[in-house]
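Reading a protein record of the kind used here takes only a little practice. The integers have meaning only within a learned vocabulary of local backbone shapes. With that in mind, consider the following protein and its fold in token form:
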Amino acid sequence: LWWRQPAKQATPLQAHFSSHWMGKLAALAVLGICVATLFNAVYWPFSRDDTLGIYHPQAVEIANRAALLPLTGADSLYLAYPMQMQLAYAFTYIASGWENAYLARVLPALLSIGALAATYLVGRAVHGKFAGWIGMLLLATMPAFARWASTGYVDLPMAYFYTLAALFAWRLWQEDHPIDALLAGLLVGLAAWTKNAALIGVVLLAAWLVWGVINRQISLRSALISMLTCAVIGAPWYIRNQIGAGFIMPDTAWTDQAQRSLETLLIFVTRWLNYGIAGFVILAAVAAALTHLVRRRLRAPEDALLVGWTLPFFIIWWLLASYDPRFLLLFIPLLCALAGRWSAQAWAKLSAAQRHPLIILGALVLVALTIYTMWISVEFKRAILQDPLMDHAAKLAIVQPTRAE
């Protein structure tokens, strides 16, 4: 299905980047970060609060029961969380014959790495390969990505499905093919199976489809296929919640702790230790995209998609959940794709003389960021250096105090 369409011809700039030494350096940088992420996943058992307190215990019980956990009415709360990752963990435990957290951690780590590829594909689809590369590098070298990609949390896995859904939503706008409609709906449904925040994405998908139908870019048949597929995949879990617990999604967000301030509104630059250089580029790209949309009276579908599928998420986060920057990971890949699009557009306006020093500077910055990102991607480095061949019990003794803290 993915290869149904023939590959589009690359522009000279895109082809040049792929063969240029800078392109090879970029590929090595992404590869190095992926290796560091996977190493951390397979070396350490679970060590973060939500995996130790929610996902792992639920997976163990599912594996022991060989069935979903029964809801217990209004106090179900965490039992009403979507079960995508818990079911995946439970499968690894059943297949391994023990609570194999090392194998279980690989699955969300692979989905997090998949978010890098999805970012590239979205950037390439809306503006070409160069934009895709820039977007992927911005996400890969973002400190927040490095710190969460291999932890076993569900944010980046949800982002993987959501970002791919945006890719097929864009392809649907371009060609109105029923396969793209089906895949867009399926992926939003999978995102909703991974984290309940993806229900916002269901609304945004519906809005995109309605806008496409109004503009005669998307047929009513394709819109119905997409929404029906999304409902078939995602709705059963939430219907079960309503029947067994009395609510669609649990009230586990600490909305009273939301920090609605200018600092959180500009979080991509005020928390630069979380978002690094990418945060500044993202903020500039959002401003450029919004300006472009206003000037074109919304007749810029690339920006409409990337802004429309991220800005409402951000507004809801700022109003209700701005106490935790981690939730921004749900839609950061699409923001990185947007940043890649506008960075590539700005680069195309530079002369060869202007580009040369920037290429050298960019290479140096990329090397430094890659080394730093690989370093922070691996947890408990001192313990590894002291005893790289430590057994499972020794590893548990190291990660369990982290939970107590």
Residues 42 and 102 are 5 Å apart (CA to CA). The chain has a mean pLDDT of 92. The two ends are 47 Å apart (CA to CA). The chain is about 75% helix and 0% strand.
